[in-house]
Amino acid sequence: MRDIDQFTITQAVKDTFRTEKGSRFEQLLHGLIDHLHDYTRENRLTHEEWMRVLTFLYDCGRISTPERHEFILLSDVLGFSALVDMINSRDGATEGSNLGPFYVDDAPRMPLGADLAAGRAGVCVLVRGKVSDTRHRPLAGAIVDTWQADAAGTYPIQEQGQDKMDLRGVFETDDKGEFWYTTVLPRPYTVPYDGPVGALLRAGDRHAWRPAHLHFILRAPGMSSITTEVFFENMEYLDEDAVFGVRSSLIARVRPVREGEDPGVTTRRAPEAVVEVDFVLAPAD
Ligand SMILES: [Fe+2]
Prior knowledge:
- By secondary structure, this protein is α+β, with helices and mostly antiparallel strands.
- It has helices at residues 9-16, 24-43, 47-63, 70-77, 80-87, 196-203, and strands at 124-133, 143-148, 168-172, 178-184, 189-190, 209-210, 213-219, 226-232, 251-252, 254-256, 273-281.
- The strands form three sheets. A five-stranded mixed β-sheet has the order 3-2-7-8-9, with no helix packed on it. The chain has a four-stranded mixed β-sheet with strand order 4-1-11-10, with no helix packed on it.
- A hairpin with a 6-residue loop joins strand 7 and strand 8 (226-232).
- Fe (ii) ion (FE2) is lined by residues 100, 213, 215.
């Protein structure tokens, strides 16, 4: 090993790991070493550049908290998250989109018809839809886990003194696979850009805006879970999302509630607008 050079070092490093031959772990680790070494050789990385990369990663870790995951944000702005979503989309199923940095896994269970807005200002919108399988059969008892920004484009989790569970809820579909709740229509927002990822965006003359959206995770027994987002027709930034999350199939229409219209479902608050969102889950592998 002492006679390695800039070309033989790659195999030497791979050989030091006693990985199971042909395993997925070996494939991913060897691929990472290959690409990292190739990148370094191709660009003839200087010591200053190498240290800048390590300092950048250190800074991403230092600013991260349970409420702010800078590495997810980094993945998002580099299109890494979107690429993983695209590769893992299943035929006939709803397309995946970004998880984003603000998910929490212990949002409260809510009854159908609940209001997520907790008195917040904004347009009260009824979000309603159906979860079905790829053969159009409704999935009763599917879990609809949703979270979003408010009408000012802020997630309650980002604000001191706010209940971090506001504008989040976990619903279970009824026997027709349907779910519904009211909330406020979210606004576009900028991803956090006061940290190292923001500095990266500024260095590349990029903006940090995302179009308004609702986040969803859909789960049902025997089905592949989907993490996705729903966007709104004719809203700003649909074609310049800072994190590459928008797909045409994920854009919904917001329509005003017509005078005297009976939405056909019971809600705690009377909605001013309706958004219909349907989700399709594929069977688990
Ligand atoms: Fe978001």
